[in-house]
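Researcher: Good morning. I'm working through a list of sequences from a screen, and I'd like to move beyond sequence-only analysis. For each chain I'm collecting a predicted structure so we can compare shapes side by side. This is the next one on the list. No need for commentary yet; just the structure.
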Amino acid sequence: MILSMAVIGAVVAVIYMFVPHDDSKDPVKAIDYRIELVTAQRAAPYPVMAPEGLPKGWRPTSVSYVRAEGDAWHLGFLDPDRRYVAIEQSTQAPGKYVPKVTHQARNTGGTHMVDGRAWQRWEGEKYDALVRVDRGVTTVVTGSAPMAQLTAMAEALESSKPPETPGPTPSGPTGSPAQP
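Model: Good morning. Structure tokens for this chain:
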């Protein structure tokens, strides 16, 4: 039994030596969210928001779009100081949706102006948030970052629907466009 344990220990030691152990590397990988953004823009019944022109150092880390949960759009980032900021959008009722995505933050009753628009200010133990409800869509900028970084993200948000792709051109019997 001791001989078997020695063999197993030797195998484990060899495997350990060949597995990279660079503790200085950042374990958080930046993602490319463009495909998910276009997919969400086409599927969502509202203009999906994503940041444009963020300063260097912001890294996208998570993305999702879940139609079955009120067309919920999520895009998460780490700011240059490695604090979390997320954009959340949904057609769910704000009273249930906002506490869910902000880890139970509460409306302070105050507002915060971003690009001339009033956002509700929410505060919580884990996350703070800026919240806007417009035409049945709740948009939340939330995270562990300070309000200045949440504001920077809200300022960078742009919304758009992708351009409609033209349908096939009706054609006559010879393949040429049909004449009206």
